[in-house]
Amino acid sequence: MSLGHLDTVWPCATFAARPFRLDLGRAFGSGVFDMTGGLLVCILACQAFREKKIDPGKDVVFFFTSDEEIGTESGFAHLKSEAPACRAVLCLEPPLPGGKAKTFRKGVGEYRLLVEGVAAHAGVDHEKGANAIVELSRLVIQVQALTDYARGITLNVGKIGGGSATNVVPARAEANVDFRVATHEDSRWLQAQIHALKVADPRCILHIEGGLKRPPLERTPGVVDLFEKARHIASCMGMDFGEGSTGGGSDGSFTAAMGIPTLDGLGVEGDGAHALHEHIVIEDIPRRAALLAQLVRMI
Predict the structure, then answer these.
(1) 66: Cβ–Cβ under 8 A, 6 or more apart, which residues?
(2) Which of 60, 94, 152, 290 qualifies as a cystine partner to 182, CB 3.0-4.6 A?
(3) Buried b (16+ CB within 10 A) or exposed e, 254-264
(4) Is the pLDDT of residue 95 over 90?
(5) CATH, domain range 2-105+216-298
(6) Angle at the Cα of 39 (from 11 to 82), degrees rounded to 5?
(7) What is the pLDDT of residue 13?
(8) How far apart are CA 186 and CA 176, in angstroms?
């Protein structure tokens, strides 16, 4: 399976304000690096097979989702249906700096912590209130303390809110937490830690929602085997092809979690994903197309 996505993070108006352009060997445009450059590589590989009358020797599924940037909510069911029959998945997401493939991705998820307290007049009945913000603050410190850089586990309380007025003991407070994990085992461990959180004030109630959204893409023997095949092909082409890891997820994370060997980061070299200077290196396009075509034949 050749895997990619058609959507970008940019609003439609962006394309008129910053139209596609070529400059000094680079192609600039919204979404060109993440990830229409990768889709172009796939099209060129197919074109080469057709024009050279080359039979790839196998059926190839081209699967391009339309909502990857917002979690592949509509595309996941179709991906789950198609992917298990595939021998391998070649993900056309952009490579790491230096053109490196992505042989490891962290799992990505989110939790929502909601504390219900007891409202009261802050001046007249202060002692009758149960401050939801105070309780949530205690929990936030506990959540942040679960970060373990050595294990590749990070938690970030990125959004927090609560209360209604300064003279009212707040009856409600909530926080949204982003988390990243390196392995499925760490994800299960973290889930147990989060659901073990308790409020100190028995008058308060804690509600916990959320969990893992994209599983980790772990560097399994199957992933390593795919990478070694790609590196051999690249070497024969005179390319220096390395590997690395990233903290973000992709649709390749789903297929890897299904047990299908997945090699990610086979798109075009460039920079600026989700940024104003987003671009790809034009001379890398034919190299990547040739690499993909040869890899399809070798698998």
Answers:
(1) 5, 6, 7, 74, 75
(2) 152
(3) bbbbeebbbbb
(4) yes
(5) 3.40.630.10
(6) 100
(7) 87
(8) 20
pLDDT in the model for residue 230:
98
pTM of this structure: 0.89
Q: What is 29-54 written as a DSSP string?
A: -TTIIIIIHHHHHHHHHHHHHHHTT-
Burial of 71 (0-12, 13-18, 19+ CB in 10 A): middle
Which residue, chain included where needed, has tokens 């042989």? 103
Res. 12 pLDDT band, cuts 50 70 90: confident
Q: What is the pLDDT of residues 226-262, one digit of tens each?
A: 999 999 999 999 999 999 999 989 999 999 999 999 9
- CB-based contacts of 74, cutoff 8 Å, min separation 6: 65, 66, 67
Summarize the chain as % helix, strand, coil (round to 5): 35, 30, 35
109-142 pLDDT tens trace: 999 999 999 999 999 999 999 999 999 999 999 9
> Please, are residues 29 and 20 in contact by the beta-carbon 8 Å criterion?
yes
Options 3.40.50.300, 3.40.640.10, 3.30.70.360, 3.30.70.141; which CATH number does 107-214 get? 3.30.70.360
Question: Is there a contact between 270 and 32 (Cβ–Cβ < 8 Å)?
Answer: yes
Instruction: Of 7, 15, 13, 10, give the one whose Cα is nearest residue 69.
Output: 7
For 143, the token pair is: 């959540």
> CA-to-CA distance for 142 and 31, rounded, in angstroms?
38
